[in-house]
Protein: DUF423 domain-containing protein
Amino acid sequence: MHDRGWWCLAALSGAVTVMAGAFAAHALQGALPERLFGAFETGVRYQAWHTLAMLGVLAWRASRPMHGQYLVLGLWTTGMLLFSGSLYAMAFSGLGGLGMVTPFGGVLMIAGWLALALCALRARYDQSESGMT
Structure:
C-alpha cells in the first residue's frame, strides 16, 4: 500500500474510533454488563492512540521515508484489528472466547512500537554515517 492508502486507512480508523466512542457513550452504557462495556471502551482507547501514532509515522514518512515505517504501520493496523476488533466483537456478542484473540493484537501493537524504535535508531545511524547530526 502506498502512502495515500495508509493516510486513508488512518482516516477511516479515526472515523471508526469516534463512531465507536460515541456509540459506547450513547447506546451501550447501561445496556452492557460493566465488564463488556469496559472492554469496548478499552478497544476504543487503544484504537485511538494507535490511529494517532499512525498519523505521526505518516508525517515522519513525508519528510524521511524509510522501509521500516511500513512495517510499523502494518503491525499497528493488524494489531488494532485483532485487539480492538476482538473487544468490539466480544462486547456485541457476549462471547468471552473472542477475548483469546485480544492478546495477539496486543503483541502486534507492541511489536509495532519496537519496530518504530528500530526505525528511529536506524534513521539516527543513517544521519551519522552521512555526516549529519
About this structure: The mean pLDDT is 91. Residues 34-63 form the longest helix (30 residues). The two ends are 31 Å apart (CA to CA).
